[in-house]
Amino acid sequence: MDDAFVDLLHRNLEHATAFDGRFDDVQDAQRPPVVTVCCSDSRVLQDHIWGNDRPGQLFTCGNIGNRVVEHTHAGEVVSGDVLYPIAHTGTETVVVVGHTGCGAVTAAHADLTDGVDEPPGIERCLDLLTPHLSPGIDALPDDLTRAAAIDRLVEYNVDRQVDALVGSDDVPSAVDVIGVVYDFQDVYSGRRGEVHVINVDGEHDPATLRASHPAIEDRIERLWTY
């Protein structure tokens, strides 16, 4: 057996010791106030980026590209992973978490510009991203490096996922939908690991957001407006 998994088991004992008394209030049900949709990238620590150590506080969803949609016989709909806490646990805030240097956005960019050859499972995921990112690629400034272009498309992707939630009849209008980017590559002005708010309920103009949300104005920052 791989030593990495054995190490995980040892760490789980530490977790179980530390968390032993923290599950008492969530034995019978969960009512998380927030659902997060993160990229399933090993560098994005879905609970830890918020300093969370409370079971029942966050309903976490993860997939490549922090997507909120899926294809069904009815067409493209909001994923049940995201809808479940909204529909059944009283969750009223959704946070879409993109991140700098996103591999899924990088692959989507490559697929749209040069074409890629991926296994069917990965192609299916890219098919959920590329139609939404194509207009963003066309709108990018011509003088960007590839890395800079990808980070701007990360914002564009978060915006599109927020739009899908705000525009869905399955998501009540009372639910707050927030788009953020997690930066561990010194792309934004803050420290490594900071979350930067780029979209609230479909509004993505930084000046408008700062005026509307003064309590978090120092956390509102975008690389790109379009």
UniProtKB/TrEMBL annotation:
Cited InterPro entries: Carbonic_anhydrase (IPR001765), Carbonic_anhydrase_sf (IPR036874)
UniProt enzyme class: lyase
EC number: 4.2.1.1
Keyword Magnesium: no
GO molecular function: carbonate dehydratase activity; metal ion binding
Keywords: Lyase, Metal-binding, Zinc
Pfam families tied to this protein: Pro_CA (PF00484)
Co-factor binding comment: Binds 1 zinc ion per subunit.
Binding site for Zn(2+): C39, H99, C102
Catalytic activity as recorded in UniProt: hydrogencarbonate + H(+) = CO2 + H2O
Cofactor requirement: Zn(2+)
Annotated family: Belongs to the beta-class carbonic anhydrase family.
PANTHER family registered for this protein in UniProt: CARBONIC ANHYDRASE
Protein name as it appears in the record: carbonic anhydrase
